[in-house]
Amino acid sequence: MQYGPYAVDYEYRPYNPERMRNERVARAQASLKKHGLGAVILFDFDYHRYLGYYSFHQYCRRRLGHFVLLIEGEGFPYVPHDHYHGTWDQARMPWFAGKMVLESAKAFSLQQGLPDHPDYVPGLMDTIVAEVKGLLQKHGKADMPIGIDISNYHLIKAFERAGLKICDGLTAMIEATQVKTEDEIHCLRMAGVITESAHWEVCKALRPGLTEFEIAGIAANALYKLGAEELEGPSFVVCSGERSGYGVPNMPTDRRVRPGDFVILDINGVSFQGYRTCFYRTYLVGDKPTQFQKDVYKVARDGLYALTECVKPGITTDDVTNEWKKRGDFPGGWGRVPKWPEPGRHFFGSVGHSIGLRSGDAGPTIAGASAAMGYAVPPVKIVKNMCFAVEVGCFTWLGDRWAKDGVKIEHCGVVTDTGFEPFYRAPKHDLIVCGLPGEYYSVDVGAAVAAAGRD
């Protein structure tokens, strides 16, 4: 990546936050018009950020109640004001001039419940709807369908009492967000730059005796030092030893890493300017790899390469899955997944999912091997500037238990005119052994190669 993360005065850089804000709002406005919506009410904090609004009170993500109101044809949305009627927030978000007015957008309103006062919550919802209806009437949209992303029973009933036509608003927002702008792609790249450095810090620290909790902590500490603004949870996957052989993804535990363990690490949900990572790698700790470990790593890696090569513009997500399976049509390959619970290699979690505002965005999904487990979604045409997280996991069922060693590898990237360009550079071609400094072990020939071995 040629540039640093931020705009500077001494050279042109491609990231322009003002352009990104304006382009995102324009996309959302176009989607509302296409879907025939007069407005959309959004409680999801990631959609708030997409439309230019950022609350420093991010704890409210889990205390739903703050909302923004995007009215078709009226530019930026109406958003909540701060406790001092915009004197704090207006100064730092001047693009909301005249729009920072919402009184009823308050934390907890969607989750509040007072059993001793059964009329309180319905009344609270009536207050929200009255404010929304007043703004819709101001702009002549009160007779049109109004979309919403998240709701509860009492809010829906309040809309009905007010005579408003409430409907799905998610579809319009997903359509707006699934193709990324130049600036959004830059942010996704930079989130990857931050996170691949955190993987490096984990590799330097990995050794027998660490707990999975400590590994997650090393990653989190490195990320904040490197410029991450948020961690999604953090919901890092850390699975070592026997836990690497099944059930990925799983949260870290107090299990201690032992010599010869695989460690599967997904540093996901790392945010740069609101855009997030999904970043699996698998490492070996404290011993040379066994032949089984090399074989499992190689088939997962080759499966990842193949899936990446199959992603192209102009074809559907089903086309990608079908071509990928053909390439894996060999004994032990991803194209010959045994029917559960037959013994053999199972490639669950081998998929391509949308990436952007979340570590797993709503939108197009490449089913991959997940289709064999009953996970199927309708095909979607792949177009330029869609962004996917492409991941392949290989796990071995022995008939009565999972084998000790499993592997999962992943990268994110963008669909270009000709194919798929990965964002991440953290090495994946050869298995990295931590605790044996300076050596990788090739999964192709089994011989040690230089620490700067090819990725």
Topology, please?
Blueprint: H1 17-34, E1 39-42, H2 45-50, E2 68-71, E3 79-80, H3 89-92, E4 100-102, H4 120-138, E5 145-148, H5 153-162, E6 165-168, H6 170-177, H7 182-205, H8 212-226, E7 230-231, E8 237-240, E9 261-266, E10 270-272, E11 275-276, E12 280-285, H9 291-310, H10 317-327, E13 344-346, E14 351-354, E15 365-366, E16 387-397, E17 407-415, E18 420-422, E19 431-434, E20 440-441, E21 448-449
Parallel strand pairs: 1-5, 3-4, 5-6, 12-19
Antiparallel strand pairs: 1-2, 7-10, 8-9, 9-12, 10-11, 13-16, 14-15, 14-16, 16-17, 17-18, 19-20, 20-21
Helix pairs in contact: 1-6, 4-5, 7-8, 9-10
List the main descriptive attributes of the protein structure presented here.
alpha+beta, single chain, Creatine Amidinohydrolase, disordered C terminus, Creatine Amidinohydrolase, Chain A, domain 1, 21 strands, 455 residues
How much of the polypeptide forms β-strand, as a percent range?
Answer: 15-25%
Number of strands: 21
Q: How confident is the prediction overall: mean pLDDT?
A: 92
CATH class term of the largest domain: Alpha Beta
Task: Describe this protein's structure.
The chain has 455 residues and is an alpha+beta fold. The protein folds into 2 domains: 17-177, 3-Layer(aba) Sandwich (Creatine Amidinohydrolase, Chain A, domain 1); 182-449, Creatine Amidinohydrolase (Alpha-Beta Complex), CATH 3.90.230.10. Helix content is 30%, strand content 18%. The radius of gyration is 24 Å and the shape is elongated. Residues 451-455 have low confidence and may be disordered.
